[in-house]
Structure formats: structure tokens, C-alpha cells
Amino acid sequence: MHILISCVGSAGDVHPFIAIGQALARRGHEVELVTSPHFAPRIEAAGLTCTPVGTEAEFAQVVHHPDLWNPRTSFPVLWLAIAQRLVEAHRLLVARAQPGRTVLVGSTLALHVRLAQETHRIPAAMVHLSPVCMWSAQAPAVIPGLGDLSGWPPALVRLIQAAIERGFIDRVMAPGFDRIRRDLGLPPARRLLSRWVNSPQRVVCAWPEWFSPKQTDWPVQAVTTGFARWSGTAAQSLDPALLSFLNAGPAPIGFTPGSAMAHGRDFFARALAASAALNQRALLITPYADQLPHPLPPHAHAVSYAPFDALLPRLAALVHHGGIGTTAQALAAGLPQGVAPFAHDQFDNAARLVKRGVGLRLSARSPVREWSDALARLTSDASIAADCRHHATLMAEDSDAADRIADQIEALQAGSVHPGTGSAAGTGQASTCGRPR
What we know:
Strand content: 5-15%
Strand order of the largest sheet: 3-2-1-4-5-6-7
Number of domains: 2
Helix content: 40-55%
Largest sheet: 7 strands, parallel
CATH topology of the largest domain: Rossmann fold
Order of helices and strands: EHEHEHHHEHEHHEEHEHEEHEHEHEHHH
Structural class: alpha/beta
Radius of gyration: 21 Å
CATH class of the largest domain: Alpha Beta
CATH architecture of the largest domain: 3-Layer(aba) Sandwich
Shape: globular
Number of helices: 16
């Protein structure tokens, strides 16, 4: 098979697809990752082909946008970045598709995958990395500004979710998206993120059933598979300066607001103050060194990047933003987690970690005293430690998720399933696939 994997987002959104691509490549398939050239070195080091969309400058522009991490303004920022390359990305997929061989795989925001499925009948699977991507009135995700609606009557939750999508998401996306669809000979589409984005052939929910069980109001073609985690390349290791710091004293607490957070100055200020108050060593992880004080205090060390599978077992706890990639890696390491969400899926991921007893919710604006109290509990609470060990065992039992996702993709072998024949039941709309161009 020839498999075009399109993924949109930061490192935590791309790394799982590298793992999926490697699983498919091991089976003899030809795999290309279609994504920002920012990730080309990691993709190529993993033995895969990177087919770039956009530029490094565009990636940096989005990352440095001041509204990216505000829950009220983050989605419009993302949509503008996606929309400006959507037509080009669709054309690229169509141009590179090989009749009878190609299958498309897309992350949640890789909307060009669904467009190519509609216009050219190319088999496609959409892979969601976070439960917030699956709209459910029976088990609603935590949405910034609304909080946790679990336990509310499903009929009321359904009305609230529909109002959010109609009044905000579709209002942001529809004008530009309708123009693109019209130029492609397609009718307008609505309920874009709750319904349309889900391929009628296959929807892969890339998390374990215990993290977010499948609901009866999910699309019937949805399956849960476990977290696909990329462990990096064989050549990756901890750099000598980092190893020296780790070996020089007790396990430090790790702090990272995410690989794409370029506005984390306050986060790191609280991290340093809270860890100093506890006489705890601190490891700061960010590619944006301008967010850090210079020089660092004696109890701290900073790195721009480290492979988490090698690093996390050396930490006492991890305080992070709640990105799903970081969340999964910390669960696998059995590491207590403090989560300070900023936007996107992070609030929902934080709530799930708290409910499972493996983490505590923090606020990026909380006083330092609250941070230090939370850090003290994360590093000393026996019940948190026990729950972390339990979840590390669950993750170890679930380590072949990338191969299970590869199984789902192989089931869409070109020519064996046609868009339009895959069930659209559970999506609330008829499939518009099968419209040849």
C-alpha cells in the first residue's frame, strides 16, 4: 500500500503519527508523512518520508501568535493557519495518490484528507488523538468556559454542544470553507468538527478504552486502539549536560508548557519559585530559551528537547500543559502529573488525569504557594504513587497501539472499500463521498 499520513499541530500531534508510520513501514508499505517541514528531521530520522506543507516560517508565526494559547481565541488562530494551506494540501494529496494503492490517514485538523476522500474517492481514515475530538452528550468532554458537564441530562448537553458548534466553530470556519468546497464542486457542510470530519469508513480513537470508553452516540465506525507513542530514534539519548544534572542529586521535577508554547514565561517563573520553596531540583524543558531567566538558579537546569521515554523515568514528577502526547508518555512512565492547561484539549485531559488519581490540576495564574503545595503532594502522596504504578502497568499492556491502528488502516486497502459505501450511521448525516472529479 501507499499511505499518505497528514498531521496538523505540534510535536505531541505529530509524534504519534510517526509511530503509526513506522508500524506500517515495518509491514512493507510505502509511507509519507504530510506535515510542516518543522518536523522533517525527526520524521526522516525515523526512516520515513516527509512531504512538506507550508514553511518553517509559517509554523513559527503560529507558535508565536499571542492568541494561540487563549481558550477564547485559539481556535480562530488555528483555523486561519489551516485554511491558508488547505487547497494546496488537497492538491498535493490528489497529485501524489496512486490509483488502487493509496490510502489516506488524517489527524483531526487535517481537513484536506476528508476533502480528497470526497472529491476523488480515495479511501481514508481519520485518527483522533484526544477524547475531546469525539462529541458525545453521554460522556461530554470538558470544554474551556463550560467546565465538566458530565452528569447533566444528555438532551441538554446535546443542545449546548450544538449551540457551541453552530455559534462559534461553524461560524469561524464556514465562510472560507464553503468557498473552498464550492470551488471543488462540493456542497456546503456544517457540524464540521462533530460530524463531517469523521470519515464514514474508519474513525480511529487513539487512546485506551479505560481512558475514554466508546459511547453509543459516537459514530459506529469508530474504534479505540490505545495511545500510539513514538519513542524516538535509536540514536537519541540524553545529552551529557542533562545526564550530569540528573546524576548530581535527587530526581528533579520536570516542567514543560509544551513544545509549541512560546509564551511560558509566567509558567516557568512559578515553576522555579515553587520548586525552590520545596528545596526541589527543577528541570525546565522548552525550545524557547528566552522564556527563562538568565542565569538559572542553582537548583535548576534547562534543555530544549529530550526524548521522554528516556527522560521521564528519571523525574520525581512532571508539571505540564496537558497535551495528549505528554500525558500518554507520563502515564507510561508512572509519573505523577501536575497539569496547568492553557487551551485546546488540555482542560479535558487534565480532568481525566485527576479523576484517575494520577495528577492534580494547576492554574497558570495560581499563586506560587498553591503550586508548591501541589508539588509537595505529587511527590509524597502514596495514593497518587500507587495509581501511577497501576496506570504504568495498563500502559505496558497497551504498548502495541500503533500496530492496532495499522491494522485499521490496512483494512481500508485501496479498492476494497469505497467512500460512500462506508457506514455514515451515527454521524447524523449521509456521506457525501464518492463524488468523482
